[in-house]
Amino acid sequence: MQALWGERRRIGLWRRLWLALMEVERELGVDIPERALAELRAHLDDADLERAAEHEKRIRHDVMAHIHHLGEQAPAARPFIHLGATSAYVTDNTDLILMREGLQLLLGRVAAVLVALAKPARRYRDVPCLAYTHFQPAQLTTVGKRITLWMQELLLDAEEVLHRLDTLQFRGVKGTTGTQASFLELFDGDDDKVRELDARVARRMGFTRVFPITGQTYTRKLDAQVLAALAGIAQSAAKFATDLRLLQHEGEMLEPFESDQVGSSAMAYKRNPMRAERMTGLARFVIELEGNAWHTAAEQWLERTLDDSANRRLVIPEAFLASDAILVLATNVAAGLEVREPVIARHVAAQLPFLATERLLMRGVKAGGDRQRLHEVIRTHSLAVAQAVAEEGAPNDLLERLARDPAFKALKIAVRPVELDPAAYTGRAPRQVDEFLEHVLPDVLHRVEAVAPAAAAAEVTV
Phi, psi (5° rounding) for residue 208? Predict the structure, then answer.
């Protein structure tokens, strides 16, 4: 991702765009000698960035600086470089190419996180654990089911990025204010040739769709839509990381921790969820960048204003770079998750009597009891038992208390020991995991594989 957004890659694309423009102009009848094209082709990737900077210092225009520099390297091409174009021809179209490639890279990384999470989801598909609502113990779920909640968020992100890639449009060859007037002049008023120029250049750069209407630039709404997709990825990763931080506090699930890793410079015993914390910090940064992009789109005056330029040069690359870092961390954490089943089982056992009261309530009403009265009996005993357990370390005798209470004793209702099997309280969670992993996940992964490269290995060293 760093190489993608580097200056050398950007200028290489500018030169390819100038080449494509000259090639198609020649195909459509402009008298451009083959030698001009040959010289330009020979200098696509050898720009001297220091020499170009010297030009820019003098003329204060980055695109013209590179036109002059390329003209020095390819003198036969010099008279025809940028013919009919405006700066946005290279700057905007390059940004679109870079965003397309950046989205493909991120899509591969999202897939890597999904694959990594699928393994513990499958392994722990039927391991009962406490669910939490309001971060208070609630009806049981399974460890695998909780992991699929994280996966589903990322799956939605993958589908959004696929949509963005499928609908991404090229700015194309539109001229100074989007009217293509300069190209109409170049082709002596031949409207068909101007439209063909636009389409052919787009195809050469790998785009099948071209904006039919632009001002000097393509609409900045597209930037905001792309950054919204990145913000979605950041949100999903932050949700995963935040949940993991909470679970690490409970001792149930932990991020990887190396054998020589130090958790604190002062408190040697600590094992902090530093990678998850880093994910949430970077996610806030990416999520906030989306709003910046919408403001930029809203502030564009008429056909174009330059107050977007410096802003976009920071915001767009940094959004992609930070999103890439988030997904590298997420893959590392997902691949090394530590699940402490004994701790989870103890927590379940401590809360199971409370969870069993819902069955007791249903059974009492079926036996002729008053639902509201029985609910109040359960509430009163539950609060008393919870306080005794917390403050005195007393055993959880809730079910015994309820069995002795006249309201339930008269109905001859109690919870049998066999009914305290945690697996009986997880509903369809294990089957939901199976259905998700077998029928939902593969379809999206196949679609991702068709358009995105496999994520390159990236080591987390800090």
Answer: -100, -15
Domain with residue 120: its CATH number is: 1.20.200.10
Range of the domain at 60: 7-83
Q: What is the pLDDT of residues 108-159, one digit of tens each?
A: 999 999 999 999 999 999 999 999 999 998 899 999 999 999 999 999 999 9
102 and 71: one domain?
no
- DSSP-assigned letter for residue 178: S
Q: List, in order, residues 6 or more apart from 159 with CB less than 8 Å away.
A: 444
Quick one: the chain helix, strand, coil %, rounded to 5? 70, 5, 30
Question: In this structure, are 377 and 258 located in the same domain?
Answer: no
Pairing of strands 136-142, 128-133: antiparallel
Environment class of residue 246 by beta-carbon count within 10 Å: exposed (0-12), middle (13-18) or buried (19+)? middle
Q: Which of 48, 83, 118 is the last residue of a domain?
A: 83
Model confidence over 373-418: pLDDT tens digits?
Answer: 999 999 999 999 999 999 998 888 998 899 899 999 998 888 776 7
Domain count of the fold of the chain: 3
In this predicted structure, what is the pLDDT of residue 16? 98
Catalogue the active-site residues.
134, 264
Residue 292: both structure tokens together: 């910046």
